[in-house]
């Protein structure tokens, strides 16, 4: 058994002994760093993927319509909503952002292009007939969001 202190001492001692390997030691460290960075990025991507999945806000179901509010302020919040296939959807966009960029919202798959008045709720209604991800975006396609339509279970 060796204590942590002994292991560290051994390591620092060995580095001077292996001075003939100094030339390959540095590339190895760089490789290690790149690998760590890669693994870190994959982890971040995975985390982001899972995080954005859970961030999808489920539409609230009423008797005959499923409804969800999206706040338009420097983007869309939430920018991912989940709805059920075959049931009418009403999205209430509450625009708080005065920039003209977010003035108009477009949902191409449902042929919707709607101007949003400032500090007002503007409703957009449609019925997704097929499961899938439908995107929506601002007039200039700079801010985007998605509507996940799923079969009701
Ligand atoms: Cu825009």
UniProtKB/TrEMBL annotation:
<feature type="transmembrane region" description="Helical">
    <location>
        <begin position="32"/>
        <end position="51"/>
    </location>
</feature>
<keyword id="KW-0472">Membrane</keyword>
<dbReference type="InterPro" id="IPR028096">
    <property type="entry name" value="EfeO_Cupredoxin"/>
</dbReference>
<protein>
    <recommendedName>
        <fullName>EfeO-type cupredoxin-like domain-containing protein</fullName>
    </recommendedName>
</protein>
<feature type="domain" description="EfeO-type cupredoxin-like">
    <location>
        <begin position="46"/>
        <end position="147"/>
    </location>
</feature>
<feature type="region of interest" description="Disordered">
    <location>
        <begin position="1"/>
        <end position="20"/>
    </location>
</feature>
<dbReference type="InterPro" id="IPR008972">
    <property type="entry name" value="Cupredoxin"/>
</dbReference>
<keyword id="KW-0812">Transmembrane</keyword>
<dbReference type="Pfam" id="PF13473">
    <property type="entry name" value="Cupredoxin_1"/>
</dbReference>
<keyword id="KW-1133">Transmembrane helix</keyword>
């Amino acid at each position: 058994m060796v204590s942590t202190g002994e292991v560290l001492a051994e390591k620092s001692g060995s580095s001077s002994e292996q001075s003939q390997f100094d030339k390959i030691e540095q590339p190895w460290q760089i490789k290690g760093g790149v690998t760590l960075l890669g693994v870190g990025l994959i982890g971040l991507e995975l985390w982001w993927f899972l995080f954005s999945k859970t961030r999808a806000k489920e539409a609230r179901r009423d008797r005959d319509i499923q409804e969800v509010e999206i706040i338009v302020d420097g983007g869309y919040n939430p920018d991912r909503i989940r709805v059920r296939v075959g049931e009418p959807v009403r999205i209430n966009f509450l625009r708080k952002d005065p920039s003209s960029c977010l003035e108009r919202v477009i949902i191409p798959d449902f042929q919707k292009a709607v101007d949003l008045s400032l500090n007002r709720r503007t409703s957009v209604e449609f019925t997704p007939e097929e499961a899938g991800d439908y995107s929506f975006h601002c007039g200039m396609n700079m801010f985007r969001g998605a509507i996940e339509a799923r079969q009701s279970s």
